Every structure is written in structure tokens, then in C-alpha cells.
Amino acid sequence: MKEREQFATYPSLRERVVLVTGGATGIGAAVVEEFALQGSRVAFLDIDATASSLLIANLSTRCLHPPVFLQCDLTDIAALRAAVAQVEASHGAVRVLVNNAASDDRHSFSEVTPEYWDGRMAINLRHQFFAIQAVAPRMTAAGGGSIINMSSIGWMIPSTGMPAYVACKAAIVGLTRTDQDDGPRIGKIKYSCEWCIGRCNSYRTSAPPMVDSGIQSRDHGAPGSQKEFGSPGSCAPHPVSSG
Q1: Predicted TM-score (pTM) above 0.85
Q2: CA–CA separation, 143 and 12 (whole Å)
Q3: Is position 165 annotated as part of the catalytic site?
């Protein structure tokens, strides 16, 4: 079977400008790959130049538009805003934002300092809000788009050994709900919040088992259930409306 024959093709994603944070490795790289193979014009932000170069080399002959890498420390909000402006200058309005970047370094409850806590907030949460704020004006002016915030099942299990990370991932669900409610006031923007387990499993966020989130998302199975995916298509793109 040829590479793309096993996955759906969404014409609405062709030529669509997509921005992915933390796109060099892991889930982020899978997101970059799948959008690029749909014919989207993908830019991604990361600090890992080596992994980013390898990803681009892998995709350069397989997609219509090879992804564009911008090296960016997302904890530096001024640098994040500058990177978004650079993408908009070269590609046009971002129509899909995937807030993916995060770090799940393990840490014990007793050893967390205020400085470490603030650092985890900056790496796992703060940049998501400011990336949305940066892309929203031109996304709205262009007719709308989709914003996908990556959360985690860590706050639902609950996971141990990473309290700051778990707090951030729970906060992302709240951020997405709030932004979704603000949507009519800032333009025709669709919000969703998702989480993946590795590259092959995914949970639906539209109705977690203990939270009625009200968040609209793709259907990965029954609410709160686990569904197996056998490829990087576990993070395959959503179709995006033209309006």
C-alpha cells in the first residue's frame, strides 16, 4: 500500500498555513508530517535545530511544501511573537495553530522550588496563551481557523512524579474552554483540546469521564475511551472549513 492510501485526504488542508510549536520530535513531528503530507504549508517552532533538519530532510521529497523551521525558545514571549510575525510575513495568516510544545521532566513534590515551578509554567502553559494571542488577529481577518491545544491524560489518571506538568495540562483544558467561549467575540475560530499517548493512542476531550468540558474535538472513540492507532496518523490533521 502506498504511503498515503491508508489515510484520508482533506482537500481543505491543501495550501492551508499551519503553525506547530515543538514540532521537531515526537508528537509534534508527527503533526508536522501529517499536515505536510496533506499539502499544507507548515511552519514549526522548536529549539532543536538538529532534529528539525532531519525532519525536513525526511519530508522534503515527500510533500508539496517542505516544512519551514524557525528556531525559537518558547519561554521567550518576545521571540515567540517575532517568530509568528515571521511566519505571517512569509506564509500569510496562520489558519491552523497546534500548541504542542511541552516538557514532562519528572520532579518530586518536595523538591519543587518557586523558580522551578515558574519554569514549568513557562515551558508547558504560558506560550500556548501567547501563541493564540499572536495568531488570532490575522486568523480572524482571514476568515477564521482552528486552534488545537495539546493537553495530557496526566491530570485525569492522575500521574505522579510531575505535579507542575500535570497542573499545566489541566490548565490547558480550562484555557481552551475559556477561549472557545470568547470565540464569537474574537472571530470565527474553532478550538479543540487533545491529548495523545505516545504516537499511537489518543483520547477524546469533548467529554472526559469526570469532566463535562464542552470542548468540541475529533472523535477518537467513545468519550473517555482509548482507541488504538497504528501510525503517526494518530495525530492526523482535522479537516478545516474554508469559512
Answers
A1: no
A2: 14
A3: yes
